[in-house]
Write a structure and sequence with these properties.
twelve-stranded mixed β-sheet
C-alpha cells in the first residue's frame, strides 16, 4: 500500500509544480481604432488613408501575453494566424508594437531579446529602470483591486542626437505580488494588469488584461549577444547615421 501511494503523491506534486506558470492575455485598451481622414481627392492619398485605417483595425486583433512564475517572467506578442491577403497590413501593424521580449531571472536581471541587422541581442536594462510614484487612485480589473502608478522615463536617441521622454501609467494589484508587467513595466509591488505608454518615439501602447489562466510549460528563452542597453542604443545610433549618410 505504501509503495503504491508514494508514486501517486510524487506524480501529484510534479503536476502541481508544472502548473505554476500564470499567463495573462493583454489586448488594446482603446475602445475604437484610430480613424484617419483626408479631404483630398487624390487617388494615392485616398489609398494611403484607406491602408492606414486598415492597419489600425488590424492592430485590434493583436494580443500580448505575460507568463510568469516565482522565478521569472516573459512578455511577448501572442502567436497568431494571419489571414491570407492581409499579410502586408499585419507586417506594418507589427512595426508599432514591441518586437522584442522581456525576460526576468530570479528578479535580478532584466533584459530584452531583439533581432537587429541579422543578429540577436540580449539587451540588459537596470532592474530599477523606473522611478514609480504610486497614487491613491484605484479601480477593478478582472476582479482585482488595482492601484495607479506613474513615472517619466528619459532615454537618449543616439541616431537623432536628442533625448526622448516617455510617460508611463500602470495599474497594478497587490494581490499578485510579483514585480512584472507588460512591455517591460517592472519594479512595482504587484503585477501590472494595465499599462499605457505616451510620449516621444514609436511603439506607443495602451494594454489591458483580458484573461488570466495557468499553463504548464514556460516559454523557451532564446539566446543572444549580451549587451548593455546604452551600448546597444549607441550601436543603433551609429547604424542609422551611416544609413542616412549613404542616402
Amino acid at each position: 500500500m505504501r509503495t503504491g501511494i508514494l508514486p501517486i503523491l510524487l506524480f501529484l506534486v510534479v503536476i502541481t509544480l508544472e502548473a505554476q506558470n500564470t499567463k495573462i492575455i493583454y489586448i488594446d485598451a482603446n475602445k475604437t481604432a484610430k480613424n484617419h481622414t483626408t479631404k483630398s481627392k487624390d487617388i494615392i492619398k485616398l489609398r494611403a488613408v484607406k491602408s492606414l485605417n486598415k492597419i489600425e483595425s488590424v492592430k485590434k486583433n493583436i494580443a500580448f501575453e505575460l507568463i510568469y512564475n516565482d522565478e521569472k517572467s516573459v512578455f511577448k506578442r501572442e502567436e497568431m494566424l494571419i489571414p491570407k491577403g492581409e499579410e502586408m497590413y499585419y507586417a506594418l501593424a507589427f512595426v508599432s508594437v514591441p518586437l522584442g521580449s522581456y525576460f526576468f531571472k530570479n528578479r535580478k536581471e532584466k533584459y530584452k531579446i531583439k533581432e537587429s541587422s541579422g543578429e540577436i541581442f540580449k539587451i540588459i536594462y537596470p532592474n530599477n529602470q523606473y522611478n514609480w510614484k504610486i497614487t491613491k487612485e484605484t479601480k477593478m480589473i478582472l476582479g482585482y483591486e488595482c492601484h495607479k502608478a506613474t513615472t517619466v522615463y528619459r532615454e537618449y536617441d543616439y541616431g537623432r542626437d536628442v533625448e526622448l521622454e516617455k510617460s508611463y501609467t500602470a495599474w497594478f494589484t497587490y494581490d499578485l505580488q510579483f514585480p512584472y508587467g507588460p512591455f517591460g513595466l517592472t519594479g512595482l509591488p504587484g503585477v501590472v494588469l494595465e499599462g499605457q505608454e505616451d510620449g516621444d518615439g514609436f511603439g506607443k501602447l495602451h494594454l489591458k488584461a483580458k484573461e488570466i489562466t495557468t499553463i504548464k510549460k514556460f516559454p523557451k528563452i532564446p539566446k543572444g549577444r549580451k549587451i548593455d542597453y546604452i551600448e546597444y542604443n549607441k550601436l543603433q545610433g551609429d547604424y542609422y547615421k551611416e544609413i542616412k549618410k549613404n542616402k
